[in-house]
Amino acid sequence: MHGGTRIAASTVSGRFAAVFGGDMAQAFSSESFSSEVHRTTGWSIALSVLMIIVGILAIASPLVAGIAVTRIVGWLLLFSGALHFVYAFRGGTVTAVLWEILLAILYALVGFYLLANTAVGLATLTFVIAFYLFVEAILEFAESYAARYESGSGWLVFNGVIKLLLAFMIWGSWPSSKVWVVGTLVGVSILFSGFSRLIMSSAVRRITA
Q1: Does the pLDDT of residue 102 top 70, yes or no?
Q2: Where are the domains of the chain?
Q3: What is the pTM assigned to this prediction?
């Protein structure tokens, strides 16, 4: 009788310890997860604030921002050219090797040109952006026509009109528009990305608080 009582008590004690230990482990895991989320969102919020500051500075000084963007594009093209040159000798047919070498030379030449002639490169980027906006406007009009019986298609037309007007405005004042176009558009993009990241990071931080 006493033996059975001891066994029962031991079983209950074991179950209690298992449950209590599981709760402790779960609580510790939850606290660890919350701490990790807070640390990650803290860095994300700091990055968001930095992006907002950079965006404001780019909008305030669009020419400086445009020159910086042009130089970054030049260095990226040089880096891409180097990668294509290295990849060309990884094997393959003669045609593939020659094609990769030609791409490497093209990227390198354009990259050097942008770095050596920043003003001309900035004007070229401005023209390319205007062309991109023009193509985007045409696609918006085509999409709105395809969805003309759907609700909200009018917003596609409105978006297309804005992009088309912006493209013609840039072309109409080109190349003098290089002074503000690239820097302003990049600044606005960074600014809104910073605000979006800040809102999302703050929301996640509040949920796990």
Answers
A1: yes
A2: 61-116
A3: 0.60
